[in-house]
Design goal:
With 314 residues, this protein is an alpha/beta fold. The protein has helices at residues 14-17, 38-49, 149-160, 174-183, 196-204, 206-209, 219-225, 232-242, 265-277, 286-289, 292-312; strands at 2-6, 23-29, 53-58, 69-72, 77-79, 84-85, 90-94, 99-107, 111-114, 125-128, 142-143, 165-168, 188-193, 213-218, 247-249, 281-283. The protein folds into 2 domains: 2-61 and 146-312, Phosphoenolpyruvate-binding domains (TIM Barrel, Alpha-Beta Barrel), CATH 3.20.20.60; 69-143, no CATH class. The protein is globular and about 60 Å long. The protein starts with a strand and ends with a helix.
């Protein structure tokens, strides 16, 4: 069993957790705030985690807010990091899909006009931080361009350092893969499947690029983007069928963050299901990884579940 971790570049326990045998690699989140230039940050991060692998997570067509914004009766506009097209009205999900707003109109491609019901009090407001991610799970959504300027900057720096491992967010078509290979012909790619269009790519196009590409069931966004929640089961099955080395990511053992309680039975059963389906590689989500005690608890529990699975083959 292999585990990928996501940790900010200046985490104090980075070196310590890299010593766990099951930890294969670390995901470098390009959305993290850096105190130095990209090359220096990648070099220092890579040296700290040696001999474990370093994978650079490119944001691609992931949707994020361009600046900190407060939605209220006086302001109903959100700025987006990509130009988009989508049929409106439609819903925008945020806070990992737990909350939503209605988009009434897309203005100039990169501004979203949000519907504010008249009955709400004048004190109504929702605060969003700069770079806050969100989902628009509508099949008419078109995100212009794929790699961002920041993505390309990281690829350029990585090539200079001899790093060629990339995670690509929201892979949905063959051209997404080719765009990166054009910048780095030596690229090794983990394609994060995070949408219904991504699942179509797995079913109809992945075979054409599988030599360079490993799949990831990126459940954080994928679960929000599905038409119905129960479809996560068929999505997971489709991905592992297409790529026997696929990685299951996010929404894994999140109950370990509450150190005062036992992990949820459902979390343990979820991990067992993933093993039963054939998954042997996992990426723990940001929330678990950024809590040192939770991360160590999750790693210990993952190993225990895996040993139980090997013993019983349930």
């Amino acid at each position: 069993m292999d585990v990928f971790l996501t940790l900010p570049p200046y985490t104090s326990y980075l070196k310590e957790v890299s010593k766990y045998l099951m930890v294969k690699a670390f995901r470098f989140n390009t959305g993290a705030q850096l105190k130095e230039d990209v090359e220096t940050a990648l070099t220092r991060f890579g040296e700290t985690i040696k001999p474990k692998e370093l994978w650079i997570d490119l944001k691609c067509r992931e949707l994020r807010l361009t600046k900190a914004t407060e939605i209220s009766k006086n302001n109903n506009i959100l700025g987006v990091n990509h130009k988009i097209r989508v049929q409106t009205p439609t819903l925008l999900y945020y806070n990992e899909g737990n909350n939503f707003l209605q988009i009434d109109k897309v203005i100039d491609g990169n501004k979203l006009q949000i519907y504010i019901p008249e009955h709400l009090p004048d004190t109504f407001k929702i605060a969003f931080g700069k770079g806050a991610p969100f989902n628009i799970p509508h099949n008419s959504l078109v995100v212009e361009d794929y790699l961002t300027a920041k993505d390309k900057k990281f690829v350029e720096a990585a090539r200079k350092l001899g790093i060629h491992n990339y995670l690509l967010s929201f892979v949905e078509q063959k051209s997404d893969i080719l765009e990166l290979l054009k910048l780095d012909p030596e690229a090794k790619i983990i394609a994060k499947i995070e949408s219904m269009k991504g699942l179509d790519f797995v079913e109809h196009t992945y075979e054409e690029v599988k030599e360079n590409v490993q799949l990831m069931a990126a459940r954080g966004d994928l679960y929000v983007e599905l038409d119905q929640p129960h479809q996560v089961l068929s999505a997971l099955a489709k991905i592992i069928k297409a790529n026997k080395n696929a990685i299951a990511a996010s929404r894994i053992l999140e109950s370990t963050m509450n150190l005062e309680k036992l992990p949820y039975c459902a979390d343990i059963s979820d991990m067992a299901l993933l093993l039963k389906m054939g998954y042997r590689s996992f990426l723990l989500g940001d929330d678990v990884c950024e809590n040192e005690s939770a991360l160590k608890s999750a790693l210990g529990l993952m190993d225990a579940i895996y040993q139980e699975f090997l013993k019983n083959r349930f």
